[in-house]
Specification:
With 170 residues, this protein is an alpha/beta fold. The chain has 3 helices and 6 strands; from the N terminus they run αβαβββββα.
Length: 170
């Protein structure tokens, strides 16, 4: 009995250490810390899902979003691009697979409006099976994929902002 318990605890410990050593982490648990304390977010689409998600992520990272120009750094987001395209067709010439691509151009500017980092483009895409016979289920799947792609794009923007902060940007 004791030997079995020891073996189970050892196996669990080895599994946890192996996962931690390889860099695995649960989805959505990436560190989102930035050194900047204030940032102005300028978007072309005020109510875009990407801009809203980026606002939430910046606030969660401890960044205060300011409205006034000339108060420091400002992140300028271009228009969010969402593209759906057919990747393959079935034997009836209907879409069998589709690709969804989400991208946004952005740059970081100082208080004078001069670009300090960028312009850069963050892009995420995914190919998924499409069944024209179950449109409602596919709409739900597309919405989920869209949210995942937004998470990915926001993560890319954060990594680029960290890079800009550390002075590694060309």
């Amino acid at each position: 009995m004791r030997n079995t318990l020891l073996r189970s605890v050892s196996l669990a410990l080895i599994t946890v250490l192996t996962l931690a050593a390889c860099g695995w982490h649960p989805r959505g648990s990436q560190e989102v810390s930035l050194q900047m304390r204030q940032l102005r977010l300028v978007t072309q689409q005020l109510d875009a899902a990407l801009a809203e998600q980026l606002r939430r992520a910046l606030r969660a990272a401890g960044v205060e979003l300011v409205d006034a120009a000339g108060t420091g750094l400002s992140l300028h987001l271009g228009e969010e691009q969402r593209v759906l395209r057919k990747v393959s067709l079935d034997r009836d010439a209907r879409s069998a697979e589709q690709e969804m691509r989400v991208s946004v151009a952005f740059d970081l500017r100082n208080a004078d409006g001069a670009v300090v980092f960028g312009p850069r483009t963050a892009t995420a895409s995914r190919v998924y099976a499409f069944d024209p016979n179950s449109i409602i289920a596919k709409q739900d799947e597309e919405n989920l994929i869209y949210k995942e792609l937004l998470d990915n794009v926001v993560g890319q923007v954060f990594r680029q902002l960290r890079r800009a902060e550390s002075g590694l940007a060309p």
